[in-house]
UniProtKB/TrEMBL annotation:
GO molecular function annotation: dioxygenase activity
Ranges where the VOC domain occurs: 7-131, 152-269
Superkingdom, taxonomy of origin: Bacteria
Native species: Paenibacillus puldeungensis
Keyword Glycoprotein part of the UniProt annotation: no
PROSITE patterns, per database record: VOC
UniProt cross-references to InterPro entries, sorted A to Z: Extradiol_RC_dioxygenase, Glyas_Bleomycin-R_OHBP_Dase, Glyas_Fos-R_dOase_dom, VOC_core
Pfam families: Glyoxalase (PF00903)
Name assigned to this protein: Ring-cleaving dioxygenase
Signal peptide: none
Assigned keywords, A-Z: Dioxygenase, Oxidoreductase
Length: 316
């Protein structure tokens, strides 16, 4: 029998300018760029991965940044809000930090928790919440010390056009437990420490449209390759149409679209991001799969260069 998923493995979104994307997620939020590669299906576009010091499952937000990309519209069929968890006692630090960078914030409440809600430079909806669960992130960068650093995902707020069906999938296939409703949202919980709290709208919403500032897919954790194959079989047995298993170099992936319109992925914890770079040098150079190596020169010429840098607001 398959154990319930521990929670979110990663979340992948669209963005515009690569340098602005890196400045926001590394420079402002203090996450580590753990992998610099390309979209394997469109190698003229970066695929950038940000996470904790090791790029642990449950901490990884990834982007396809491409200058000039059209803007998307957030709505049903997407992750509406990506939730990060921060250490207890760090809420005011983050509120002041975001204000220092001119980022507008609002405080919202769900299920007796207070969230600091904001958007990135492309309009992607994000929020921070204090929680005790989950290990501290040992990574520090710019003005973010390790004891205040984002630990990883707290979870996500899913926008579904068929919320009852999305909720049923979370319970009966993914193994999450329904905790209750607060009027606008239903809450589900996975057994992991990070990326384990999932809220879903109770009432159907208008459809979104993909593009910069929106999430492409949400990925759930499978602990190993054998369990991953079992997950694919289970998804198919419940009437969904999973893709074949795809080797993404740092994890194996299978995709399917659930009835609320959201693209789900199931991804393996192994082999991880240190398979082709030493842990102390993660994200420092462009890493390509073997089949792209003969074309490295052309691929690099087609990509806009960027650097991971401490921003001027943290140098003053």
């Amino acid at each position: 029998m398959i154990q319930p998923t521990a929670g979110i493995h990663h979340i992948t979104a669209f963005a515009t300018d690569p340098q602005a994307n890196v400045d926001f997620y590394a420079g402002v939020l203090g996450l580590r760029l753990v992998k610099k590669t390309v979209n394997f299906d469109a190698p003229e576009v970066y695929h950038l991965y940000f996470g904790d010091a090791a790029g642990s499952p449950g901490t990884i937000i990834t982007f396809f940044p491409a200058a000039g990309s059209r803007r998307g519209r957030i709505g049903a069929g997407q992750v509406g809000v990506t939730t990060f968890t921060i250490p207890e006692g760090s809420f005011d630090f983050w509120k002041e930090r975001l204000q220092k960078f001119g980022i507008s914030t609002t405080q919202v409440s769900r299920f007796d928790e207070t969230y600091l809600h904001f958007r990135d430079r492309d309009g992607l909806q994000l929020e921070l919440v204090e929680r005790a669960a989950g290990p501290l992130n040992s990574w520090s960068f710019g003005g973010v010390p390790a004891d205040k650093a984002i630990k990883g995902f707290g979870g996500a707020l899913l926008y579904s056009r068929a919320p009852e069906k999305t909720g049923k999938l979370l319970e009966t296939v993914m193994g999450l437990e329904k905790l209750g409703e607060d009027g606008y949202y239903a809450r589900y919980k996975a057994p992991g420490e990070l990326g384990n709290v999932i809220d879903v709208n109770v009432n159907p919403m208008d459809n979104g449209a993909g593009g910069a500032g929106t999430v492409h897919h949400i990925a759930w954790r499978a602990k190993d390759f054998a369990e991953h194959e079992a997950w694919r079989n289970l998804v198919a047995e419940h009437g969904y149409q999973p893709t074949p298993i795809v080797d993404r170099q740092y994890f194996h992936a299978v995709y399917f679209r659930e009835e609320g319109g959201i693209l789900f992925e199931i991804a393996t914890d192994p082999p991880g991001f240190a398979r082709d770079e030493a842990p102390e040098h993660l994200g420092e150079k462009l890493m390509l799969p073997d089949w792209f190596e003969p074309h490295r020169g052309t691929i690099e010429q087609n990509l806009d260069p960027f650097i991971v840098r401490v921003l001027k607001e943290d140098q003053e």
